[in-house]
């Protein structure tokens, strides 16, 4: 038999645990009688005016806490008739009603509410019975609490942002979430200094809950969330590796920028990086490129740089001192493949010359010669195509050209030379594949 309480508020930003009590020392006899379910002994003790109040276990429970956990409504009724404090709090500020909500003891909950127990009582960490019922997915209990006055807009943490709807979204309790969406104020949707439940659904990795929120007019952009160091929910998607959620945010109107390409590189989420490019994410430019140059030390350029250049990124701004002096010789050579290397700026020529003279970089022999006519034609044709046409095999494959020239336009010869196998678009567009690849 359980004696004591186990309360776990395992929701974003908090984790409060009240351990189970295994000691018998200090337990009062009536508590033991209730715990053992001995009706006759309980009645006998009550007849002789046994003390039913005050902490009677190592975690501060009284007999009503224990009877509520056991859903012994008959014993609860006896205790209530004999003056037990229905609002008694244990060491964590938890009442018998809270226990009933946490463990889904509907009968106990119904009885306590009928006796006027505080439906909005808060534990020491501010959690409410509705919050814990939402977290644990006890739908009938949540419905009963709401019908008897539970406040879905009562903050359940010290920071003043967390509501029952956040708990339901994070823990994947879709049925409770549906209840709460219709009664929770929308200030958290995009309100400043608030946290949208969209973040909670993403944090927990629950696609169904995210879809429910977005289809219910919660914004995919939400608000900036300094608490979790997230500019938007998409940042959390990338940080948590829940790539399967990215297409859902895009479906409901999330706007990509090159910032998210940068974030993918920061977290080594290359499949999602490539997916964003195919979804027409704007390419980086100007100072935005500096963040990409910081990724050079990771030596993963084959996972992202080819796709950036194939999408139409101008390689010229990349060829600065940082890029050319990187430790990866192949990186410099590969970038030059996307240029007319005989028409580079004077500054770039000087950097390359100095680098070749003082470092171990060895350029390919062909860079000493004029580019072939076919290469120049490739550069010209690609310059005439829009970036969105360059991001997928589909458009190139529809051009009135022999297959060998279509492949050449997509740099198949260069990719093969550098040992780069271009990832198949159809495979990586599969949501499950994206998610698994980023785990």
TrEMBL record:
- Keywords linked to the UniProt accession: ANK repeat, Repeat
Q: Which residues form the SOCS box domain?
A: 366-415
One Pfam family assigned to this protein is Ank_2
> Record's InterPro entries?
Ankyrin_rpt (IPR002110), Ankyrin_rpt-contain_sf (IPR036770), ASB3_SOCS (IPR037329), SOCS_box (IPR001496), SOCS_box-like_dom_sf (IPR036036)
Which organism is this protein's natural source?
Engystomops pustulosus
Q: In which pathway does it act?
A: Protein modification; protein ubiquitination
Q: Where do the ANK repeat units fall?
A: 59-91, 92-124, 125-157
Task: Report the superkingdom from the record.
Answer: Eukaryota
State the name under which the record lists this protein.
SOCS box domain-containing protein
**Which GO terms are recorded in the biological process aspect for this UniProt protein?**
intracellular signal transduction
PANTHER family according to UniProt: ANKYRIN REPEAT DOMAIN-CONTAINING PROTEIN 39-RELATED
């Amino acid at each position: 038999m359980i004696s004591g309480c186990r309360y776990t508020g395992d929701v974003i930003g908090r984790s409060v645990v009240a351990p189970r009590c295994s000691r018998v020392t200090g337990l009062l006899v009536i508590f033991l009688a209730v715990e053992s379910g001995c009706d006759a002994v309980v009645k006998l003790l009550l007849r002789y005016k046994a003390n039913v109040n005050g902490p009677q276990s190592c975690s501060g429970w009284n007999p009503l806490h224990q009877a509520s956990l056991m859903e012994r409504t008959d014993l609860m009724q006896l205790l209530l008739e004999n003056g037990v404090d229905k609002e008694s709090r244990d060491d964590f500020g938890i009442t018998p009603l809270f226990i009933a909500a946490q463990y889904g003891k509907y009968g106990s909950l119904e009885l306590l509410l009928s006796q006027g127990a505080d439906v909005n009582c808060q534990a020491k960490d501010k959690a409410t019975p509705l919050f814990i019922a939402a977290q644990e997915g006890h739908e009938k209990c949540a419905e009963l609490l709401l019908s008897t006055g539970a406040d879905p807009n009562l903050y359940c943490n010290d920071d003043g942002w967390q509501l029952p709807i956040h708990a339901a979204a994070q823990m994947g309790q879709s049925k409770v979430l549906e209840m709460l969406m219709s009664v929770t104020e929308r200030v958290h949707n995009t309100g400043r200094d608030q946290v949208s439940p969209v973040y909670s659904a993403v944090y927990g990795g629950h696609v169904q809950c995210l879809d429910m929120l977005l289809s219910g007019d919660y914004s995919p952009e939400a608000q900036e969330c300094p608490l979790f160091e997230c500019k938007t929910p998409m940042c959390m998607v990338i940080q948590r590796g829940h790539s399967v959620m990215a297409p859902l945010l895009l479906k409901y109107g999330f706007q990509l920028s090159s910032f998210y390409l940068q974030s993918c590189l920061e977290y080594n989420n290359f499949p999602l990086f490539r997916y964003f490019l195919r979804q027409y994410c704007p390419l980086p430019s100007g100072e935005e490129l500096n963040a990409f140059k910081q990724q050079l030390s990771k030596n993963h350029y084959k996972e992202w740089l080819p796709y950036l250049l194939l999408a139409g990124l101008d390689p010229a701004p990349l060829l600065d001192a940082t890029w050319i002096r990187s430790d990866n010789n192949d990186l410099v050579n590969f970038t030059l493949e996307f240029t007319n290397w005989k028409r580079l700026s004077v500054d770039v020529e000087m950097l390359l010359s100095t680098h070749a003279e003082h470092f171990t970089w060895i350029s390919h022999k062909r860079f000493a010669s004029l580019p072939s006519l076919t290469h120049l034609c490739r550069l010209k044709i690609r310059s005439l195509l829009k970036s969105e046409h360059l991001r997928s095999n589909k458009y190139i494959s529809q051009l009135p050209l022999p297959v060998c020239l279509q492949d050449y336009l997509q740099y198949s010869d260069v990719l093969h030379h550098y040992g780069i196998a271009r990832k198949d678009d159809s495979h990586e567009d599969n949501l499950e594949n994206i998610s698994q690849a980023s785990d």
